[in-house]
Design a protein that fits this description.
By secondary structure, the protein is of the alpha+beta class. The strands form two sheets. It has a four-stranded antiparallel beta sheet with strand order 1-2-6-3. A hairpin with a 4-residue loop joins strand 4 and strand 5. The two termini are 13 Å apart.
């Protein structure tokens, strides 16, 4: 799967693990499409590596804000395997979505292969 909205940067953490930071800045009408990509990544990670967490092969941090408005409270619900968020004001400012993934070398290799991340 090629990602159209999320563009990941890779950072080695020096202990064998790594992190990948992605950001998308979109108009409110396009936020659903950007969040759908984040959900696809998180669903894949959950299916392949189990639930995220400190002692898991991977973990994540998801944030979403709209310019001139409050935090949109985006979160990945492990139980329902879906994203929850407050809808943006359609006449409001741009929405910024950030997704940080961290994980083991095996997680990183699988992530790069699955989503064509350089």
């Amino acid at each position: 799967m090629v990602l159209d909205y999320l563009d990941f940067d890779h950072n080695d953490n020096g202990d064998g693990s790594a992190s990948w930071d992605a950001m998308a800045c979109v108009l409110p009408a396009r936020l659903h499409a950007a969040l759908a990509e984040a959900q696809a990544v998180l669903l894949w990670a959950h299916a392949e590596f189990g639930a995220p967490g400190e002692w898991s092969a991977w973990d994540c941090d998801l944030q979403c804000q709209q310019d001139g408005a409050a935090d949109l409270a985006a979160q990945f619900d492990v139980e329902t395997q879906s994203l929850r968020y407050q809808p943006p004001a359609l006449d409001g400012g741009r929405c910024t979505l950030t997704l940080t993934l961290s994980g083991s070398p095996g997680f990183g290799e699988a992530l790069r292969e699955r989503f064509s991340i350089d």
